[in-house]
Amino acid sequence: MSKVGKQSVAESTRTDSGVLVGRCDYNLDPKHRFTIPSEWRAVMGKPEYVYVMPDGKDKCLNLIPPAEMEARLVKLRERALFDPSLAKALQTIGSVSEQLTLDVQGRIRVSDKLLQFANLTTTVAMVGSVRMIKLWDPKALKPDVVDQTELATALESVGF
Predict the structure, then answer these.
(1) What's the predicted TM-score (pTM) here?
(2) Tens-digit pLDDT profile for residues 9-33
(3) Residues contacting residue 4 through CB under 8 Å, at least 6 positions apart
(4) Which H or E run includes 124?
(5) Cα–Cα dist 33/58, whole Å
(6) What domains, with CATH codes, occur in the chain?
(7) For residue 41, with 0-12 CB atoms within 10 Å meaning exposed, 13-18 middle and 19 or more buried, which class applies?
(8) Environment class of residue 66 by beta-carbon count within 10 Å: exposed (0-12), middle (13-18) or buried (19+)?
(9) What is the pLDDT of residues 111-160, one digit of tens each?
């Protein structure tokens, strides 16, 4: 597996911060696997598995750590067990999601169906999104520069 790009995750991620930040591009290996950087695995608590699902709005995938998924499930468990709308939504989410085991090198193999959805053919751009990692086709992203207007809007929208 070869790393692409100039910025390393180590330069942009502190393992004691509890957040996933930075960007790292990796080539898919011949078996279509890629490595989750060790710094991010440490931030996620060195999980044995992760969840991957298509994004609901963008042509990318969401890689969700087990703790983040569990936090979301706690909220869902507060709802009625046999709520028909909840059951339908969960079935839809479950049918397109994957629970993927990390190998000893921290690699995962996303299904061809999900790779095709996000147009991940040779390289995956892994973008830290604080609580999860977004998996993008690098060609779908803006150049790696700081857009101050976009940053100001994002900071304001989350009350940062």
Answers:
(1) 0.81
(2) 433 333 344 799 999 999 999 999 9
(3) 25, 26, 27, 123, 138
(4) strand 123-128
(5) 22
(6) 3-138 (3.40.1550.20)
(7) middle
(8) middle
(9) 999 999 999 999 999 999 999 999 999 999 987 777 888 888 888 988 88
